[in-house]
Amino acid sequence: MKTDETVAPFAEVIDEIKEASKEVFNLCYQCGKCDVVCPWNRVRDFSMRKIIREATFGLTEIESEDIWRCTTCGNCPEKCPRGVKQIDLSVSLRKLASNYDVFPASVRSAVAVRASLRTEGNPLHEEREKRADWAKDLSVKPFTEGMEVLYFVGCYLSYDPRLKKVATATVNILNKAGVDFGILGTKESCCGESVRKTGSEDVFKDLARENIKTFIDNGVKKMIVSSPHCYETFKNEYPEFMVNFEIVHMSQFLSELIRDGRLEITGEYEKKVTYHDPCYLGRHNGVYDEPRDVLTGIPGLELVEMADSRQDSLCCGGGGGRIWMDTEKGERFSDLRLEQARDIGAQVLATACPYCITMFEDSRLNLEYEEVLEVKDITEIVAEMI
Question: Is residue 111 part of a domain?
Answer without folding.
Answer: no
